[in-house]
Amino acid sequence: xxxxxxxxxxxxxxxxxxxxxxxxxxxxxxxxxxxxxxxxxxxxxxxxxxxxxxxxxxxxxxxxxxxxxxxxxxxxxxxxxxxxxxxxxxxxxxxxxxxxxxxxxxxxxxxxxxxxxxxxxxxxxxx
Length: 127
Prior knowledge:
Layout: E1 25-36, E2 42-51, E3 54-58, E4 68-75, E5 78-90, E6 93-98, H1 103-117
Antiparallel strand pairs: 1-2, 1-4, 2-3, 3-6, 4-5, 5-6
């Protein structure tokens, strides 16, 4: 039988992979809308993941890194309005990094994340 060769020496120490994010995020499927750079026209979007440090949206419009946007959406029947800056654009996904979140929005998002992580699994992980 052929011997399996490894590109690492057997003495190579195994290390745990360090997570890049400092704050938890959960996958979502929420509808919302945003305002770009404080313009009066709202643009529809879908929020595909959410955390206390930011969110990822999908929209039919082009956004650029550094754009300031205010996203409006409802989470657990609570209307939220969060402001942030576009940090990354990958295909149709736009990652928005939050500015300082007001305590109401921060608590609502944290409670939602907690509910998703500790749900009983009956509804597929969605809170």
